[in-house]
Write a structure and sequence with these properties.
Pfam families: Methyltransf_11 (PF08241). The protein is of the alpha/beta class and 230 residues long. It is built from 8 helices and 7 strands, in the order ααααβαβαββαβαββ. The protein has a single domain, classed as 3-Layer(aba) Sandwich (Rossmann fold), CATH 3.40.50.150.
Length: 230
């Protein structure tokens, strides 16, 4: 029940300062709670991004947006990513992320309220895992992720497909498609996953399975560099 309340608090209709306070208070027990929910997004996203990389990623610069406690960084590290930077709107979450020792730089930033604190075309890859949802990062913020990605770089995003997130997901996918039609990026992957995490209520459960579903998207920013011969 405690986990359900904490999840509801950050996905609900509360004002942004209140949601960030919830995250601050949740930071110490966050990983324990999402483990109980069998939350798979960090693992799935890191694997999808790693599979898109044409060469070993150890030299790649990566920005982990809404990095939370560093769950995604742990998975990325396991796939060979070593130059990780992160941003998050919650000081409590950033403190936990700093304690992992996996990030070279960490900055406070509430994406959607303010720009990312980095220059354009700085990163070979950008991740935004778990925070694209109702009451969190608005879909209108996606172009800001593109701004800081190098041409030919990759972006890995996730969202949930549960009933209360359907309206947001439709808005997000419309925004992603518009950017593709404009030639800003090209889709590499859209992976629908059934058992994304345990549902926190019967109403959110997919066909009575006890789980909600989700999706991983990987895009490559244009212009895409030509393939090397040989």
């Amino acid at each position: 029940a405690g986990v359900q309340e904490r999840v509801a608090a950050v996905h609900g209709a509360a004002a942004l300062p209140e949601r960030l306070q919830h995250y601050d208070g949740w930071a110490a027990s966050y990983e324990q709670d999402v483990a109980a929910l069998e939350y798979r997004a960090p693992h799935l996203a890191a694997a999808a991004l790693a599979s898109a990389f044409p060469s070993p990623p150890d030299g790649a610069r990566l920005l982990d947006v809404a990095c939370g406690t560093g769950l995604v960084a742990r998975q990325l590290h396991g796939h060979g990513f070593r130059c990780l930077h992160g941003v998050d709107g919650s000081p409590g979450m950033l403190e936990q992320a700093r304690s992992t020792g996996l990030y070279r730089e960490l900055w406070p930033c509430v994406l959607g309220q303010e720009p990312l604190p980095v220059p354009a075309e700085s990163y070979d890859a950008v991740t935004l895992v778990g925070a694209l949802g109702e009451g969190q990062v608005p879909s209108a913020a996606v172009p800001e992720l593109l701004r800081v990605t190098k041409p030919g770089g990759f972006l890995c995003l996730t969202t949930r497909s549960n009933p209360s997130n359907q309206r947001y997901k439709a808005e997000l996918e419309a925004a992603l498609e518009r950017l593709e039609e404009q030639g800003a990026w090209q889709k590499v992957l859209a992976q629908e996953v059934e058992n994304w995490e345990r549902a926190t209520s019967e109403e959110e459960s997919t066909q009575g399975t006890g789980y909600i579903s989700g999706v991983v998207y990987v895009y490559q920013k244009c212009p895409v560099p030509p393939a090397k011969e040989g």
